[in-house]
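All the exercises in this workshop are built on plain-text protein records. A record pairs a protein's sequence with a compact description of its fold. Read left to right, the backbone structure tokens trace the chain's path through space. Once this layout is familiar, the rest of the handout is easier to follow. Here is such a record, shown just as it appears in the course material:
>
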Amino acid sequence: MRLSSWQNIVSATLAFAVFSVVFLAAAGSAGQQDSQTIQQQQRPRKVGSTQTSNSNSQASGQQTNSSGEEVGEGDVLRVETQLVSVPAVVTDKAGHPLTSLRVDNFIVMEDGKPQRVTNFAMTDAPFEIALLLDTSGSTREELGLIRDAADSFINALRAGDRVALLAFNNVPRNRVPMATVEMLTSLTDDRKVLHQAIAKIGTSNGTPFYDALARAADQVFREAPREEVRGRRAVVALTDGVDSSSDSGFDDARSKLARAGVASYFIQMSTEDYVEDRLLKDCQDDGRLSLSAKQLERFRQIFAPSAQKEDYQDFCRMGSFERMDISRQLYNLARKEMNELARDSGGKNFSAATLQDARAAFAQVASAIGTQYSLGYYPSNKNRDGRFRQISVQLRGIKDAQVRAREGYYAPKQ
């Protein structure tokens, strides 16, 4: 082989080697970039209640969530399912609502430990409401006033607020009319639909109050809330709270409402005198009222657990004093239960001395709902033990003010 030919071979070999090194380096760099891209796409991210972006982040295809963490558009979204929503109403020393607070003005504690508020809704955010109208025997003579009060409440709500309407109605069961819960509308902001439904409300022979609360939690608020109404859901009930015909009990209804995270507002009607007058009538009198078998058994279990069941099965064999005593204790129990539901959830219990006062009470409820903040946090305690967690909300930088907020919740259970 001639020298020139050998030189040509060596030159070609060197050129090929250099090309190979460059190619492999480029491939390695590209592979590293692809690996980084895959890792970025698979990295989970948390999303708060609000996201902020600017021109620079939009240009680079990135967003910044409420916690300040930058996330790429290709990131896999991890949805947190344990967000705890805490409704809160803040008033000054005169009882007037304070409506211009910021998230920095609130401190949220769970079981004595501070939590980081990641979701915050101002008082002008929309609400979702389950409106329950008690039209049982103790209120049937005032049905027109109940309809007028409910219409006024609907008119007092703001644009964007949605309402589901529930009431009691009779259905035949074994040829006997029995009270049941009827959902007249699902959640809607159509005022015409709501007013038409209110106009069609009838009456019932009983009060399945606990069943109605449980149905509101199970059906009205079954779906996860939209982002704009997180922590802004409520049950509003016009009732005397004395259950007479529910299949479920108070503890069951209370647990379901707590797990749904809804605030409870009650307009507590005073029907005690009306009921007592009719309880004392003879059982043959067409105008009399009687305590149902479920009411009598509930009374026995709570107030006289050692008594024989047979002693509380026949209302007509009871004396006047015994009937009155049972009725009064059931009314006291109802007031206690509604106060507990309101306090636990951050809602409120309003009294209506007469049904004519219901319109003013509804206006107070609408005002309370319209001035409610919503705070949300992911609890630092990640245990899924089903236990009750105590919540405390405090104010920072605000003098002579009071806050009314949800007092706790049940953790999810594994």
Q: What stands out?
A: The CA atoms of residues 282 and 374 lie 52 Å apart. The chain has ten helices and 19 strands.
